[in-house]
């Protein structure tokens, strides 16, 4: 078995993690902790500071404390500071900047927030990674991890938390050690400004679940078409959040068409 208990597609070379906001890292923090503690070269990139409703300074302070707990050095944390809830309009610039980071860092593996219709910035980050990889002309593998989406059953008000929508590539689960779980839980407490997401995330991925099942992730489709919705139910940002987001999937799709240069399966 591989030293990280991974499937054999993942090497133990350089890892890049790309997040839309500070606190997205919580959902894959156990894996990050394992990589960092084993001495694997790991870089984190946060595309925004998550300050749409204010509190940008607080969220960046939380991020600094969280990465300190993870053991990720300051020079391995990059904040690009694109506008929160503005990644759809920043796709081209963000793809260019991230492509430069890829050319400089040369990762073998990239983990990014899933394309799942939960938050437009999460979906945009996923597209930006595809586009940046193509522009950088690297051949690194892309993996994604789920945060939340609207494909769940009616008794959870359609919320599905830290789990992929039905269909798509197979999910892999990385079991965590007690120390890795403690790290993950400590980081959840650090992101106190985002308690409304941290509480359900803790309930869904209890200590027992993390030890026996683990954190989910999956290999991204090689030529994904981001103009096709990730699932057939109403997307979260067209339902739960749209009273202030005022973003439709059509807006996202049109931005992808304007920016995309990589080939798709379509």
List the SSEs and their pairings.
Elements: E1 15-19, H1 29-37, E2 42-48, H2 56-70, E3 77-82, H3 91-105, E4 109-113, H4 120-136, E5 141-145, E6 148-149, E7 160-161, E8 172-174, H5 178-190, H6 195-204, H7 207-212, E9 215-219, H8 242-245, H9 249-259
Parallel strand pairs: 1-2, 1-4, 2-3, 4-5
Antiparallel strand pairs: 5-9, 6-7, 8-9
Helix pairs in contact: 1-5, 2-5, 3-4, 4-9
Q: What would you say this structure looks like, in words?
A:
- By secondary structure, the protein is of the alpha/beta class.
- It has a single domain, classed as Rossmann fold (3-Layer(aba) Sandwich).
- The protein is 38% helix and 15% strand.
- The protein has nine helices and nine strands.
- Strands 3-2-1-4-5-9-8 form a seven-stranded mixed beta sheet, with helices on both faces. The protein has a two-stranded antiparallel sheet with strand order 6-7.
- Helix 3 packs across helix 4 and helix 4 packs parallel to helix 9.
- It is globular.
- The mean pLDDT is 91.
Distance between the termini: 36 Å
Top-tier CATH class: Alpha Beta
CATH architecture: 3-Layer(aba) Sandwich
How many strands in all? 9
> In angstroms, what is the radius of gyration?
17 Å
């Amino acid at each position: 078995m591989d030293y990280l208990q991974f499937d054999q597609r993942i090497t133990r070379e350089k890892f890049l993690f790309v997040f839309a906001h500070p606190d997205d890292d919580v959902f894959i923090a156990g894996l990050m902790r394992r990589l960092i503690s084993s001495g694997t070269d790991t870089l984190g990139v946060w595309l925004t500071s998550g300050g749409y409703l204010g509190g940008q300074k607080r969220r960046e302070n939380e991020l600094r404390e969280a990465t300190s707990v993870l053991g990720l050095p300051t020079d391995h944390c990059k904040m690009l500071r694109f506008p929160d809830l503005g990644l759809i309009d920043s796709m081209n610039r963000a793809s260019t900047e991230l492509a430069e980071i890829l050319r400089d860092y040369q990762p073998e593996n990239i983990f990014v927030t899933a394309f799942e219709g939960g938050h437009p910035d999460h979906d945009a980050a996923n597209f930006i990674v595809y586009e940046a990889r193509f522009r950088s002309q690297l051949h690194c593998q892309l993996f994604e991890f789920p945060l939340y989406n609207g494909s769940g059953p009616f008794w959870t008000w359609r919320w599905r938390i830290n789990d992929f929508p039905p269909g798509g590539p197979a999910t892999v689960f990385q079991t965590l050690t007690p120390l890795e779980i403690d790290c993950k839980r400590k980081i959840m407490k650090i992101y106190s400004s985002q308690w409304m997401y941290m509480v359900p995330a803790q309930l869904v991925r209890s200590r027992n679940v993390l030890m026996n099942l683990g954190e989910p992730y999956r290999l991204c489709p090689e030529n994904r078409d981001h103009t096709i919705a990730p699932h057939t139910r109403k997307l979260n940002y067209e339902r739960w959040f749209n009273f202030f987001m005022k973003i439709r999937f059509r807006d996202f799709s049109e931005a992808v068409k304007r920016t995309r240069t990589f080939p798709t399966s379509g």
